[in-house]
From TrEMBL:
Region ranges (Disordered): 60-82
InterPro entries xrefs: TMEM272
Origin: domain of life: Eukaryota
Protein name: MARVEL domain-containing protein
Entry keywords, A to Z: Membrane, Transmembrane, Transmembrane helix
Residue ranges of the TM segments: 108-128, 148-170, 191-214, 234-263
High-level lineage: Eukaryota, Metazoa, Ecdysozoa, Nematoda, Chromadorea
Length: 274
């Protein structure tokens, strides 16, 4: 049989004890004080935390095209590809409120004007301000029905060219410094805002001058007080009218987009409830 005790002095000690001390006799019984052996259980150590977690996918790997919209820095980079319709539409779908819509439109406008095509188009459109200056200068005294119309053409053309020149110089300086325009900096030129406000106010004033003499102007007799050079007045009238048409179309599109954005969460909520 297995012996599960040992004799320590005058005491019979179980093998589960490590040390015993004989105390004496009490009531005819030998008394021994023993210390029980403490069993130590092996503790499994935690595996070391890996520096990198490597995930392996079982199966055939497939390349999934990245449909996420490009960042603004990639779009503003002249060496990168221009943003596609799908990327712009993807960013538009992420807009949640009218404020986000305004930021998206400002960002899209900044991306568009930073392209080479937009630069060429803006250079071509500078012909219109030049034509306004030439037309107003040649007919400065040929519109007695409203003498301020030729002056309005000259001032509008001059400040439009000044606005384009300041923006071009500012953009060229930023590119030389290696600082592309940021998404929050659509009009980084501080002077551009003042020129835009002035041109807007001046445009409204000019429209008042042009429309106020629409029923009185005549092109036959240059000595008549209601005379105005036909091409000068028609050009001014068409320019002002197209400006208001473009402004109305822009506001209409913006309002429609705001309505779509505001109604979209309600539709999604209703669809989820069903």
């Amino acid at each position: 049989m297995r012996k599960d005790y040992v004799n320590v002095g005058q005491c019979r000690v179980s093998i589960t004890h490590t040390s015993c001390m004989y105390v004496g006799v009490g009531n005819g019984i030998d008394v021994c004080v023993c210390a029980r052996r403490r069993r130590t259980m092996p503790v499994a150590s935690a595996p070391p935390y890996p520096d990198r977690v490597v995930v392996q996918q079982v199966g055939q790997a497939r390349s999934v095209p990245d449909d996420s919209p490009p960042t603004y820095e990639d779009s503003a980079n002249p060496n990168s590809m221009p943003p596609t319709y799908e990327s712009l539409y993807g960013e538009f779908r992420q807009v949640e409120d009218p404020r986000g819509l305004a930021q998206f439109l400002a960002k899209a406008f900044a991306v568009i004007i930073s392209t080479m095509t937009a630069a060429v188009l803006l250079a071509i459109l500078n012909i219109i301000p030049l034509g306004m200056i030439v037309l107003g200068s040649n007919n400065l005294y040929s519109c007695p029905v409203e003498p301020y119309i030729p002056i309005w053409l000259i001032v509008t053309g001059f400040f439009s060219l000044l606005k384009s020149a300041t923006n071009f110089c500012y953009r060229a300086r930023r590119q030389r410094e290696g600082r592309p325009p940021s998404a929050a900096d659509v009009n980084p030129n501080p002077f551009d805002g003042l020129l835009s406000c002035f041109l807007l106010v001046w445009f409204i004033i000019g429209s008042v001058w042009v429309y106020s003499v629409y029923d009185d102007v005549q092109y036959s007799s240059s000595r008549d007080s209601n005379y105005c050079d036909q091409f000068t007045y028609i050009f001014s009238f068409v320019f002002v009218t197209l400006g208001y048409v473009l402004l109305a179309c822009t506001l209409c599109c913006f309002c429609c987009c705001c309505c779509c954005i505001c109604c979209r969460p309600k539709k999604q909520h209703a669809g989820g409830a069903v």
